[in-house]
Design goal:
The chain is of the alpha/beta class. The chain is built from eleven helices and 39 strands. It binds alpha-L-arabinofuranose. The site of alpha-L-arabinofuranose (AHR) has 11 residues, from loops. Keywords: Glycoprotein, Hydrolase, Membrane, Signal, Transmembrane, Transmembrane helix.
Length: about 775
Amino acid sequence: MYKTVVTETRFTDFVGASLVGCNFSGARLVNQNTDSIGTNLTGSIIPDEPLIRSKLYNSILPNGTWGPIPSKNLVVNGDAEQNKLIANRTYLTGWIVSFPGRIIAMLVIFYISFLATAVPGLLSAHQSNDNIVSLNIENADSGQAIPSIMHGVILETNINRGDDGGLYAELIYNRAFQENGRSLDGWLIFGQASANINTDEPLSTALPAQMRFSINAQSNNISGFRNGGFAGINVAAQNYTASFFYRPLTNSYLPGNTLSIGFSDSTGQIIYAMQTVNVSKAPINQWYYFTFIITVVNAAPTSKNFFFIQFPSGSQGDFEFNLISCFPPTFKNRPNGARNDIAQVFSDLKPGCVRLPGGDDLEGLSIPERFIWNNTIGFLENRPGRRGRWIGYNTQGFGLLELLTFTEDIGATPILAVYAGYSVDGKAVPEDQLQPYIDEVINELDFLTASADSNKMGGLRKRLGRSQPFDIRYVEIGNEDFNGYGPQTYGYRWRDFYNALSQRFPNITFIATTTTSITTPPVVDDHNYQVPLFYIENFRRYENVPRPGPKVLVGEFAVINDDDSQMDNPWGSGRISFSSMKSAVAESVYRIGFERNSDIIIAGLYAPILQNVDITQWTPNLIVFNASSVLKTTSYLAQKIFAENLGNIILHSTATNSTMTHQSVQQGQEGDGKLGNLYFIATKNTDNNTLIVKLASVDSNDTIVKTQIHGSMASATGTAYILSAGPGVDPSKVANTMDNPNAVSIVTKSISSINGTWSITIPSWSVVVVTLPL
Ligand code: AHR
């Protein structure tokens, strides 16, 4: 039995809903990342309390106008189970909501009718025995175009040490002594020596503090210092390129002028590789740069290794070091480049687009700590870095050029996020002080896109080794300005940035982070971190966005909690460490929705992508790694089969069961995009005349899909890519983890069509992609 009380509701649940004349007075507010699209609130009374992390797109507002209202986010209190209102449904006009403890008759009537329409649909689908579906696909040579960038990711710097300590191949942690203010964090001193931070005669303005290593009396043993990397160093049989800046002080004495550098175990007793470096060229009291190769012949058995620099017995005096660096071979051999194994897995995902460099880390913890593009280019000794939004220090060694070069190397389209005068501390640049920040972005875009020969910034790019402009088609102005105090100032910030940038860069599509307090931008970014049921219930979310209107970039989304009862607080109890099969299926349902709404969705981006499992602030993530291995999560595998099999047009398709006919399927109703617990889309790659069918099942039983293609009688052999939890298994309990990295893998099966007819069994809780020549 269901209790006859609606206990909680919020605008998030009201996508496309009609809530005409409702009275929400007295509703409690929650602090959640919420939004709503296409809600009709004409005549409703909404309490005027300040809200955080919410937004409302294209809704009919209480006063009957279209457009944004200040963030609103409602919870109606009650004492029963938590149940949600469903999107796309017309609720009772004039509904009055009761508050703590009081339930009025009208609400009871409403809720009974709600149960009658909403819940049985879910239950019957789960319990259905009728799991034979007939799928009709109409072959065609034209149809709604699907953006080629459709399935992407956000690559946010700093989070989970995704760049420093992750994708950025640098092995040395705190290489320029910038962590924890200025410190020797991560450096261990051994032998008859001591070390401290010194700021006299620094290496550069950007790197103002160095290590002073002191051997006070003439030593009779080796001394030195070692660094354990970002939670370990992988020592493999290969060449490493190491370097440092070195300054011997007047009182220094180094027998033979030779240092020994290499890799050891944590005790220093086992040396895996060592290289001697003659530093006699370094003049007394002056900085001198040394670079050299360390060759490892036999790999170390674990990654609990250290990089060391050691002084011979008899050394004495003070020696200074800065920017101590060591790189393994990098992805595509780029200098200062990406870690090969992570980059390869990233590349194999075949993301259509990469949004960078954030996220919150674009904004920075405060205005001076924002992403300042020109601090991230050029010689490493001239990059000051900044305090990371998520953890420690952000060296920005993997700076703007490295990020964009990597994106280009993997064949993805960048979605460049630019700083828009608002930081994580909630402070905004006042409008009369905004111009320098706008100029900063103009210079950034000139730097990336202008001619190397006729533009000063383009010339700078060329001097840094890149003459060809980057292909920047999308620029997002800011990040999550629906948060905190963002909405209060985004109106002028968006307007001033957009007007200046769109005039100067007419070929770039600009993306707003919210429609709260701005008029219709070309594209708006929509973020969702939720439970699986949210994505399943919101399959038609974007079908209900009014057209015409801003296009939508789903710039961040992921299942972060597998417990469906936590829909109103996915950040709380049940937050997952690794995505499960249940998460992957729910995300795939949502992705099918993206493709189906290709007229309005430009792309959907999983977030975040990278996680150093030993230095984590946010879970789950798509690619998880430690110092020596890389994990493809369940969500990764699901996104991969979607991204690498992307059609360029949508084909009309309908699904029916034994009680339906294809002719009677209505747009937006059962049979269109979904039937019971099966979600689907048929698309075509017209370049190679291939049918691509994507299916996601949230059923606990297998579903047999019998397919008939109309307009192609071809008999052909194709491939099904199948990702499933396995029969009779709770899909929320199945996940690829560091301990069990291959719990789920992609299974391929051959599919044969005879005269355009073929069948496939879709396992319970699975994601399936079928490709078939037409
Ligand atoms: O993806 C992690 C964070 O989530 C991003 O930094 C921010 O944009 C969002 O709140």
